[in-house]
Amino acid sequence: MRAVSKVRLGIVLICLCLLAVPAMAAGAYTTIQQGGTVYIGEQGLDVTAAIGSDSSIGWWASGAAIATSSPDSQMPITSPSNFYVSSSAFGQYVGTWYRLNSQGKPDGIAFVVADPSLAIRVIDTTVNIDVTNKWIPRGDQAAFRIDTNLNQIFSRPSGGSTPEGITIYVQSPVGGTYSALLDSSGTPQSLENLVISQADYTTPWSWDTGNSQYVTGTYTIWAKCDINNMYDNYGIPGKTISQQNTLLDQEQNPLISVNVPTAVTTTPGGTVQTPPSLLPTTQSTAVPTTIPTITPSTPVPVVTTASATASTVPTTPIPVETTTAGSPGFGTLLTLVSLGSLAIIVLKKQH
After folding, report:
1. Rounded to whole angstroms, how far apart are CA atoms 118 and 330?
2. How far apart are CA 87 and CA 205, in angstroms?
3. Counting beta carbons within 10 angstroms of the beta carbon of residue 118, is it exposed (0 to 12), middle (13 to 18) or buried (19 or more)?
4. What is the DSSP letter of 80?
5. Phi first, then psi: what are they for 253, rounded to 5°?
6. CA torsion, points 232, 233, 239, 245, in degrees to nearest 10?
């Protein structure tokens, strides 16, 4: 008998634990009031207040005569305290869903189904410009701008649970992901579970990109919302997770290129060829290598070969030594006179 009592006590304890699980697992922002907004991907919602005493809901296409026509889509609500907004059931039917009475007629608005959207940008607050997927000068302050329609979640009752929110992810150039960033005063600012109060939300603090804790390079930035498991159920970029953006944090503008000198080459003869970009801008004193055209009547000038290091070249022409030309036949006459004189001397010696 005592053993049976122990078994019964164990069964009771197990049942109590099972009953406690849903309450422990339930997150914040699950209670939906009549006319409230729910998002595709959310689960574990309590729509009891939204549907009232009715047990089904209906959707009409835009422009339909709701009062006199049947709904284009309708759905029974079998578990109003644990409602799942699945993409298969509601993906094609976003907008207002109405309560349906027992006759299938509209009985007031139940809730509005919305397709979530989520995007993030980076604003250089030092100069007040959008630097998403661009460059920010190291040391400027950067705030994060979140554009989303998920802000209506945060108008729901929190239910006493730890509030969930939208989380910003900042991945460093070396691969680590930050859970907080330092502002200009060195105070860490959390990036997790941010409560977004409006559709175009900007963080009230800015990241000090010049802090020594952060290396130079390209950072990857995105945002994610997993409130009520919506990311797990509907993890589509641009909806429950933003597209990934980048931010280049460095001193120099990457659009300003640095000219790299061309390598110095040497010709087979050993002469060093200097790249044109490295030549001095002052006028060169090198001797022209072009040989001037010479006419027959013009004395040939003497060209002095100067070395590559010569600083000046003489400008005074070097004189050319010349002789005076004799009269035509003068040489022949002089030869005849000499021969005649020699013959006379020979004849005198013979006599």
Report:
1. 116
2. 36
3. buried
4. T
5. -65, 125
6. 30
Domains identified in the chain, total number:
2
* Residue labelled with tokens 């040989």: 291
Q: Looking at residue 240, which CATH number applies to its domain? A: 2.60.40.1930
257: three-class secondary structure by DSSP: coil
pLDDT tens-digit series, residues 82-139? 999 999 999 999 999 999 999 999 999 999 999 999 999 999 999 999 999 999 999 9
Rounded distance between C-alpha atoms, residue 56 and residue 74, angstroms: 7
What is the rounded CA–CA span in Å between residue 35 and residue 96? 8
Q: What share of the chain is helix, strand, coil (3-state, %, to 5)?
A: 20, 25, 55
Integer Cα distance of 67 and 16 in angstroms: 46
Distance, CA of 67 to CA of 105 (rounded, Å): 7
Residues 196 and 110 in one domain: no
Q: Which of 114, 135, 156 is the last residue of a domain?
A: 114
Cβ burial of 123 (10 Å; 0-12, 13-18, 19+) is: buried
Cβ 59 vs Cβ 71: under 8 Å? yes
Residue in this structure with the two tokens 């008998």, named with its chain if needed: 1
Q: Are residues 159 and 76 in the same domain?
A: no
Burial of residue 130 (CB within 10 Å: 0-12, 13-18, 19+) is: exposed
Q: With b meaning 16 or more CB within 10 Å and e meaning fewer, what string describes 31-60?
A: bbeeebbbbbbbbebbbeebbeebebbbbb
Q: Which domain holds residue 160?
A: 118-250
What confidence tens digit (pLDDT) does each residue in 57-70 have?
Answer: 999 999 999 989 99
